[in-house]
């Protein structure tokens, strides 16, 4: 571990998409690459933090120097996050699926069996809200993301209060921004004190700026 302002701090980072099975060979997923979460973990490690990195199946390799816990589903991600506690801070950068398939098959659903399959959905646990609202052992700083396509700041501000986290990084993921799966990010930091619009910059630079802010907040 490098020496730095976050030396001795344990920080939990979630990253990547989740995969929700339809049957043993099929799943529902989303386009998260894991790039922003991985960059955040790297930036925290560079400042000396001990990072537990709970990741769904991502496109990018997990950060060197982190304790990596690989999961598939939202339920598994919640269990891994709970098992990794306590932490001084928790950053929820994963794009967790909102739903899982309640009637997922134990064996492969056959194409020729009595017509089209009927998938039933059930809500996934909200990991960010669960941790934010912990009665004991809540991390001192809980940070979430709000990826929105409309009314970005208003929706993210409401989300911060609804979930109970300390900070939200709001970003516009409309396709024309090129943010989802791209190199750059363009975020607004929302805290209890107000909003702060950060310039468009690389996900790595965004991660370094966030890590600096986290160090100032909890070091
Ligand atoms: O509600 P929404 O999915 O837009 O919230 C996004 C934020 O909540 C992100 O920080 C994401 O990691 C987190 N989240 C979570 N568990 C869920 C859904 C979202 O931790 N089931």
TrEMBL record:
Domain DNA/pantothenate metabolism flavoprotein C-terminal: 6-216
Keyword entries, A-Z: Decarboxylase, Flavoprotein, FMN, Ligase, Lyase, Magnesium, Metal-binding, Multifunctional enzyme
Gene Ontology CC annotations of this record: phosphopantothenoylcysteine decarboxylase complex
Gene Ontology annotations of biological process type: coenzyme A biosynthetic process; pantothenate catabolic process
Keyword Chaperone: no
GO molecular-function terms, A-Z: FMN binding; metal ion binding; phosphopantothenate--cysteine ligase activity; phosphopantothenoylcysteine decarboxylase activity
Binding-site residues for CTP, renumbered to this chain: 98, 108, 125-128, 145, 159, 163
Listed cofactors: Mg(2+); FMN
Keyword check for Iron: no
Superkingdom of source: Bacteria
Cofactor note: Binds 1 FMN per subunit.
Pathway note: Cofactor biosynthesis; coenzyme A biosynthesis; CoA from (R)-pantothenate: step 2/5; Cofactor biosynthesis; coenzyme A biosynthesis; CoA from (R)-pantothenate: step 3/5
EC number: 4.1.1.36, 6.3.2.5
Signal peptide: none
Start and end residues of each stretch annotated as Phosphopantothenate--cysteine ligase: 11-219
Function, as annotated: Catalyzes two sequential steps in the biosynthesis of coenzyme A. In the first step cysteine is conjugated to 4'-phosphopantothenate to form 4-phosphopantothenoylcysteine. In the second step the latter compound is decarboxylated to form 4'-phosphopantotheine.
Family the UniProt entry places it in: In the C-terminal section; belongs to the PPC synthetase family. In the N-terminal section; belongs to the HFCD (homo-oligomeric flavin containing Cys decarboxylase) superfamily.
UniProt name for this protein: Coenzyme A biosynthesis bifunctional protein CoaBC
Organism: Yoonia tamlensis
Gene (name only): coaBC
């Amino acid at each position: 571990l490098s020496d730095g302002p976050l030396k001795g701090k344990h920080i939990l980072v979630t990253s990547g998409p989740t995969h929700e099975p339809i049957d043993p060979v099929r799943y529902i997923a989303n386009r998260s690459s894991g790039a922003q979460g991985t960059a955040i973990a790297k930036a925290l490690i560079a400042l000396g933090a001990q990072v537990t990195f709970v990741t769904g199946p991502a496109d990018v390799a997990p950060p060197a120097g982190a304790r990596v816990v690989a999961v598939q589903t939202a339920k598994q991600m919640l269990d891994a996050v709970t098992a990794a506690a306590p932490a001084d801070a928790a950053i929820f950068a994963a794009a967790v699926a909102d739903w899982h398939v309640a009637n997922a098959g134990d064996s492969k659903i056959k194409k020729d069996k009595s017509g089209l399959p009927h998938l039933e959905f059930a809500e996934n646990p909200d990991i960010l809200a669960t941790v934010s609202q912990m009665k004991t052992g809540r991390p001192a700083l809980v940070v979430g993301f709000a990826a929105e396509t409309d009314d970005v700041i208003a929706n993210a501000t409401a989300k911060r209060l609804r979930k109970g986290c300390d900070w939200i990084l709001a970003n516009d993921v409309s396709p024309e921004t090129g943010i989802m799966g791209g190199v750059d990010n363009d975020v607004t930091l929302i805290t209890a004190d107000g909003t702060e619009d950060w310039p468009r910059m690389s996900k790595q630079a965004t991660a370094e700026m966030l890590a600096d802010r986290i160090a100032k907040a909890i070091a």
